[in-house]
Structure formats: C-alpha cells, structure tokens
Amino acid sequence: MSNNHGHKARKRFGQNFLSDPGVIEKIVRAINPKPDDAIVEIGPGLGALTEEILAVNPRLQVVELDRDLIPVLRTKFFNYPEFRIHEADALSFDFSQLMTDRPLRIIGNLPYNISTPLIFHLLSQAGVVADMHFMLQKEVVQRLAAVPGDNNYGRLGIMAQYFCKVQPLFEVGPGAFRPAPKVDSAIVRLVPHKELPHPAKDLKTLQAVVRTAFNARRKTLRKALASMVTVEQLQSLGINDGLRPENLSLADYVQIADMLVDSGDHCAQGEEVSND
C-alpha cells in the first residue's frame, strides 16, 4: 500500500496519503462496513482505505477532485464493476443524489485545507446521512467535540452538535501518512441525531446568533451580541450578559435565536450552514 503509483501529493489539494496498514485496519474496524451499506468515500487518494472497504462493500462510491488520480483508481480497482468514481469537488457536491433506499455512510481522510467548510457542507445534508467517519487534523476534532468553557469551543462544535452526536475515536501520528503532515490527526465519528435535541425555530437565525457571538468571542455577551439582543432580553432568558460566548451551551443559543424569531427580529442574513 505504500506504493504511490508515481503520483506526487499535491499541496493545493492538501493531499497526505494514508499509508500505515495498522492504522488503516483500525479505521476500517471503527467504520465496520457491511456489504449492503451505502458508503461514499471523499478523497480516496491512492485507494489505501478504498481497497479495504471494497473488499467488504463492492458498491462503494468515491468523490475525487484530482483528475490525475482517477485513472490510478480505475486501474487499481478494475475488477470491481460496481465501484463508482464521481469526479467532483466535495465542497459543492450534492450527496443526496447518491441516496437510494438507505442513508449514506460517508468516510474520508479529509484534506486539512478544506475540512471545516466541507463539514459545514455535509451538516447541511445531514438528513440523508446515517453516519460519518473522518480523519481530520486533531485540532479540528477537538473543536467538533468541545463543550462550553473549552478553548476549542466555537461555531464548528456548536453547529456539529446541533445536527450530530460527535465521538472522537483515536489519534493518528504524522508517520501514518506520505508525505507526513506537520500536525497530529484524529478519527471522529459523527452520527446525525434522529431527532434534534435542541431544534431551533429558524436555523439561519441560530447560525447568525452563533456567528455574531463568536466573531467577538473575547467580549462579554452584552457586547458581542449588542447588535442583535438587549441586556434585558438576555436576562429575561436567565442568561448572564456578563458571560463570554464560549460559556453558553447550544440550548442557550437556541433560546436566544427562538426569542428573536418570536419577537420578529430574526435575521435573514444567515447562509447555509456556513464556514467557521
């Protein structure tokens, strides 16, 4: 699996190819693929993980942007006639088009330079997803799983936890990749909630509140959210306006957003689950 087929990893695609067989086996065990699963791999690279998944699930589909890798993958897996390659940018790809009779299981060693916007894009399509298993920069996994009061707590974690249960699984050192990245990586499992634990009346308003708050994360709430809510409104919800944005829970942010909707002040400025 260490043979990189003469393909040089491209910096602009953020490519670091997984090459450690022990780590690959551990990831496959975590995913636990079944023959009938609808599995989609983002950025298969040279197919190290792809190979192990195909052995169990020959109908695997992959989304790959680097057109130079596509003939490599076609050649390597020519004996899997149901294997499908979508040459596309995962950041704008409509994953719902791949869903048939069962929700998707999405996996991938995500390029570090697009991991955050890609996760936001996938969260916006959580309705067609059974679960997601990703290799990410360790710091991104810490942000996804962060709780109030944590330095890593912010928009990414709040919006991920709005849609999904977040489970960090294990860490992976730089030596598992070619070329070796300069940072540690980690595997995370994201499982969309069957029922949202804290559903907001208007998602765009929730996004706007969270984005506004964390644009001024070092300020108190009364200052950070001054353009959206009054001190009296915060106090009426039982929220201390002297706290900082990182001290509030997802439920608190939903409360603020719902109050704005109820009072007719909700924002049309939020966009689709957007980048941190």
From TrEMBL:
Residues 23-194 form the Ribosomal RNA adenine methylase transferase N-terminal domain. It catalyses: adenosine(1518)/adenosine(1519) in 16S rRNA + 4 S-adenosyl-L-methionine = N(6)-dimethyladenosine(1518)/N(6)-dimethyladenosine(1519) in 16S rRNA + 4 S-adenosyl-L-homocysteine + 4 H(+). InterPro entries: KsgA/Erm, rRNA_Ade_diMease-like_C, rRNA_Ade_Mease_Trfase_CS, rRNA_Ade_methylase_Trfase_N, rRNA_adenine_dimethylase, SAM-dependent_MTases_sf. It is an enzyme of class 2 (transferase). One of its GO terms (molecular function) is 16S rRNA (adenine(1518)-N(6)/adenine(1519)-N(6))-dimethyltransferase activity. The keyword Repeat does not apply. One of its GO terms (cellular component) is cytosol. S-adenosyl-L-methionine binds at residues 16, 18, 43, 64, 89, 109. Keywords: Cytoplasm, Methyltransferase, RNA-binding, rRNA processing, S-adenosyl-L-methionine, Transferase. The keyword rRNA processing applies. Its main location: cytoplasm. Its EC number is 2.1.1.182. Signal peptide: none annotated. It is found in: Cytoplasm. HAMAP family: 16SrRNA_methyltr_A (MF_00607). Belongs to the class I-like SAM-binding methyltransferase superfamily. rRNA adenine N(6)-methyltransferase family. RsmA subfamily. Specifically dimethylates two adjacent adenosines (A1518 and A1519) in the loop of a conserved hairpin near the 3'-end of 16S rRNA in the 30S particle. May play a critical role in biogenesis of 30S subunits. This is Ribosomal RNA small subunit methyltransferase A. It comes from Marinobacter persicus.
